[in-house]
Amino acid sequence: MKSIPMTTTLMALTLGAITSTAYGKEFPVVDGNITQDDVRKAQEAWGAALIKISKTYKDQGPEKAREVAAEVLDKGYGYNMGAVMFKPTLTTSPNTFRVTKEGALSYFAGGNKTYPDTGFALKGWEKYEFENAAVHISGNIALTMGKVRITNDKGEVTEVDKTWGFRKDDQGVLRIILHHSSLPYVP
Amino acid sequence: MKSIPMTTTLMALTLGAITSTAYGKEFPVVDGNITQDDVRKAQEAWGAALIKISKTYKDQGPEKAREVAAEVLDKGYGYNMGAVMFKPTLTTSPNTFRVTKEGALSYFAGGNKTYPDTGFALKGWEKYEFENAAVHISGNIALTMGKVRITNDKGEVTEVDKTWGFRKDDQGVLRIILHHSSLPYVP
Amino acid sequence: MKSIPMTTTLMALTLGAITSTAYGKEFPVVDGNITQDDVRKAQEAWGAALIKISKTYKDQGPEKAREVAAEVLDKGYGYNMGAVMFKPTLTTSPNTFRVTKEGALSYFAGGNKTYPDTGFALKGWEKYEFENAAVHISGNIALTMGKVRITNDKGEVTEVDKTWGFRKDDQGVLRIILHHSSLPYVP
Amino acid sequence: MKSIPMTTTLMALTLGAITSTAYGKEFPVVDGNITQDDVRKAQEAWGAALIKISKTYKDQGPEKAREVAAEVLDKGYGYNMGAVMFKPTLTTSPNTFRVTKEGALSYFAGGNKTYPDTGFALKGWEKYEFENAAVHISGNIALTMGKVRITNDKGEVTEVDKTWGFRKDDQGVLRIILHHSSLPYVP
């Protein structure tokens, strides 16, 4: 397993039309299904976004980092469709689940007195890699489960068990509608 | 089994969003599936739109009728997603299929020299009824087939065999992505 | 446009698992979505089946042809899921729609006193070609519309406007759940 | 608008089939979508199954408990479709994910030397309750996230954060294709 290069731009997949040439004749095709390649790009984009928020925090401070995090949530999560099932790694009851954008933003970038968050994305993350255990694709939904390892600026590695649910919207953008992250069980 | 209080704030849901109260607790639900009721309403809306275009033509002339027809296509067909599979009742080769909005508008409201159309929706339609032979629903897609009968201002009835494919978009709007209409076969 | 070679075997697509090697690691993928290639093969299979029934009738008589037709309906249509929306080219009211397997079998192979059918698939079909106007894919559903031309043993060509709806079942088999066929409109 | 009589014979429908009476006329509907009620029943069934395995173990011993657990996996999980994304509460690397039925069975009922499992379902579970944070439904897929609390025969409560992904198969059975369970984070 090798680490993923962090040059991927944020999720900007286009649904759009394809022109097929089956039978030697061109005809338009509308295809809103998620592909395995879509999924790979969206997984890479998540890591790239995390690192970008961390770097923005270091270079430009917390306010700018929060702006970037909000943009990531707007473009890459499904809060525009309604509640997102988000169980971050380090949350506790009664704020375990962050089904609103406000709660998710607080988790990633802190600065919200309603939640006891210090900003998970602000912790100097520099490297990201993931390893799928399995993937299930059905229509405009893709589900993935696996290990994610992120490394901070001190070289410390955090490993989590992570499940994602992606939904491809009408513009062809994959949005995270489900995100369950947990530390490995220690007997 | 009793429910346990939770403090999660519910948010405004936009995509066919529902608040469920299963197990005595409210929680947000995002549900983009087409229902049978959605289908019935969309079938009724098509007939209402046809009659509205006819009436607009009679009351306000061809230009205004064309505006109404364009609005019907914008709001009720899926041309915003790409090619629509539209085989109108009375078209002939090489213009049988109207996969673009331009071609569909010409069929309904005429006034386009590219197509030999006189405007199907301008023919004084006053009454509309349909009778499903069967319906198939899968995810955000619904398919219907049946008889449609429309009556003009002279009381003449036109019967067609009609197939529709609807797709529910991210805003919860059913759009026609497939429309095959044909006169009954005469041996 | 060229004619389709008739060597395709009947629809036998497997859903099954795929092993992906994204990120240099193998992991299993379950993917039930229809692909454009699935659609092309299913369209080819329909033509191959029509010709096979015709040839069976010529070589082995009506009873054997009916057996082959029943097998085609069992394997390639969705009657096992419930009603199929089938509007054959040459049916008339009150038997226009053949939502049951019995009605479809009568249309293709005749021999059923309930319906006034002579057996459409028994008419010496030897060649088949189709030309898509457009295709729409969403999840396990694919919709196609276009021209189909079939040629009999006298070299006579019949052209129809044809819409198909395919559904990929849990075994990965594409089944026709919608089939609307009509002769071109003659002004 | 009045309905018009039609003589189509309705057939026995198998796939979530419904007879609709819209417009005063009956017609068959094939509808494979997951409903909220389906989801509730599947969540309840999971708890009932856990308790049943525990009780079987107590009353009839480990072998019979393993039989019941295998039946639960066969009927309620999607291993028949391929890999299931299953991250049980108490597994550790390199056996964290149980994408095969064998691995899942070992987790629930033990008795497999390949895995270091003592049988999670054998621990005297008597009560089960769950509390959804949110639900997302799309086509034949439903996703849920929330708290699950199970109580053993000593009255001890275990709380987990649980995500499920259900897929409705062609026979209308909801199968778990994703299951991520984790103990609450302790700071």
Mean pLDDT figure of chain A = 87
Number of helices of chain A: 3
Low-confidence stretches of chain A: 1-18
Helix content of chain A: 25-40%
Task: Please count the beta strands of chain A (DSSP E, at least 2 residues each).
Answer: 7
Element pattern of chain A in H and E: EEHHEHEEEE
Shape verdict of chain A: globular
Radius of gyration of chain A: 17 Å
Strand order of the biggest β-sheet of chain A: 3-7-6-5-4
Q: How would you name the oligomeric state of the polypeptide chains in this document?
A: homotetramer
Strand content range of chain A: 25-35%
Biggest interface and residues each = A-D, 39 and 39 residues
Write a concise keyword list for the protein shown above:
homotetramer, 187 residues, alpha+beta, 5-stranded mixed β-sheet, two-stranded antiparallel sheet, 3 helices, 7 strands
Written overview of the protein:
Four copies of one chain form a homotetramer. By secondary structure, chain A is of the alpha+beta class. Chain A has helices at residues 36-60, 62-76, 101-109, and strands spanning 17-20, 27-31, 85-87, 125-138, 141-152, 157-168, 174-182. In chain A, strands 3-7-6-5-4 form a five-stranded mixed beta sheet, covered by helices on one side. In chain A, strand 1 (17-20) and strand 2 form a beta hairpin.
